[in-house]
């Protein structure tokens, strides 16, 4: 009971907002009479497609990592050092049962839903999907036990990930333009992975809905949704520069080179979904269509970045402009004016960037 208060109850209390959003997504957006059919269709969808199932497993993995991180953080706090004198003396089966019970109480939402999914997969004769779900969840509830046991045996040690990050940051020389990318991977990895998972789901759903009738405009709509989901990363890029790279304009770097560096950074950030898009449309799309989709996403993100150099652009105004631009490009895409749209986006982004870069002044609240 004491361990439940320390770990389980505190975990769910601390993540109340997260679970409310999750509950609304799974149970609140559909009428009560259609709830079972909604979940049955959802489960049928990802058990019938290994690509979709892989995305679902990644989401489950991220939740499991959240559970593991919570337990490790609790064990690392000073007020819970007494746990090393209680849990640390457990040996053999008692130790593994205790850690298994603690982890399962946190991982229970995913475990229950995955068991239901595996059962439905068996009834639909999707035996491969059922096997993958079963094996995946066995790993998810057994592998963390080793981390907990290692933590109890080595209190005060730094995690492998933290040690790797320290070594990487000290050893690898990073160009200034890539600092925000490393910031996402080190200190804002949750937002980064959420954006990437959403983009991957959109790409898979778009390609699945398109079926055998290939239409590049359909892919363009999916690509626009992917960029919209990642526009928040562009917004935080400006905030990061304001806080940590305010002296960047003073460096002797040509303006054109600064613009190219931003394009390279966003091209790298768009690489995961671009690779997935190429993989999913390998047999139907052409090289020009791939190039069009990638350049459209890159041009949108570059223009979003340039907009943040305009005066008096707050969060509300930024996302309002993002939606307006997305809608304009959507209509241009439906008319197959793809390259005109790319040219328009790049021209606006370059003009705004060149005119406003050295005139931009960070708001005082950001600097403070």
UniProtKB/TrEMBL annotation:
Keywords: Membrane, Transmembrane, Transmembrane helix. The keyword Transmembrane helix applies. The chain crosses the membrane at residues 12-32, 52-75, 96-120, 126-148, 193-212, 218-238, 259-279, 291-311, 318-334. This is Uncharacterized protein. The lineage of its organism: Bacteria, Pseudomonadati, Bacteroidota, Chitinophagia, Chitinophagales.
């Amino acid at each position: 009971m004491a361990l439940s208060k320390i770990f389980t109850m505190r975990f769910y209390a601390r993540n109340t907002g997260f679970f409310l959003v999750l509950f609304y997504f799974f149970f609140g957006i559909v009428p009560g009479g259609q709830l079972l059919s909604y979940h049955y269709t959802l489960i049928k969808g990802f058990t019938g497609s290994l690509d979709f199932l892989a995305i679902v497993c990644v989401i489950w993995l991220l939740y499991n990592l959240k559970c593991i991180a919570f337990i490790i953080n609790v064990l690392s706090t000073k007020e819970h050092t007494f746990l090393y004198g209680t849990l640390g003396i457990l040996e053999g089966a008692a130790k593994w049962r205790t850690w298994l019970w603690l982890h399962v109480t946190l991982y229970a939402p995913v475990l229950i839903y995955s068991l239901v999914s595996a059962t439905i997969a068996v009834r639909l004769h999707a035996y491969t999907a059922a096997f993958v779900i079963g094996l995946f969840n066995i790993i998810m509830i057994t592998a963390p036990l080793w981390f907990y046991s290692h933590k109890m045996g080595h209190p005060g040690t730094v995690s492998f990930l933290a040690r790797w990050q320290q070594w990487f940051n000290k050893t690898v020389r990073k160009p200034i333009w890539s600092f925000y990318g490393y910031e996402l991977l080190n200190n804002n990895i949750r937002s980064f992975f959420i954006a990437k998972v959403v983009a991957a789901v959109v790409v898979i759903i778009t390609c699945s809905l398109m079926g055998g009738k290939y239409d590049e405009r359909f892919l363009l709509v999916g690509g626009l949704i992917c960029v919209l989901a990642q526009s928040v990363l562009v917004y935080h890029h400006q905030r990061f520069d304001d806080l940590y790279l305010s002296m960047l304009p003073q460096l002797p770097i040509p303006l054109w080179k600064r613009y190219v560096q931003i394009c390279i950074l966003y091209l790298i950030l768009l690489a995961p979904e671009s690779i997935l898009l190429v993989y999913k449309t390998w047999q139907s799309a052409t090289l020009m269509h791939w190039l069009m989709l990638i350049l459209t996403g890159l041009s949108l993100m570059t223009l979003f970045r340039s907009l943040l150099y305009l005066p008096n652009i707050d969060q509300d105004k930024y996302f309002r402009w993002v939606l307006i631009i997305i809608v304009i490009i959507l209509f241009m895409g439906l008319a197959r004016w793809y390259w005109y749209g790319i040219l328009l986006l790049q021209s606006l982004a370059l003009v705004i960037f060149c005119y406003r870069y050295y005139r931009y002044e960070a708001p005082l609240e950001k600097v403070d």
